[in-house]
Amino acid sequence: MDLKSTIRDCIRTLKVARKPTKDSLLTSLKVTLLGFFLVGFIGFVIKSLVYILTKYAP
Questions:
Q1: pLDDT band at 1 (very low <50, low <70, confident <90, very high)
Q2: Domain limits, the chain
């Protein structure tokens, strides 16, 4: 791709893009935070299990 077509594509994207509504933004934030904490919790559980299994393994 050349520079001219890239700039044209960027301008077209910016013309179509709209600012999200407050409800849409809050929903996205909630889903993102839920996923963040869920992945962290799963990592914590796995790390704890590995620690317990290696500490008390014969």
A1: low
A2: 21-58
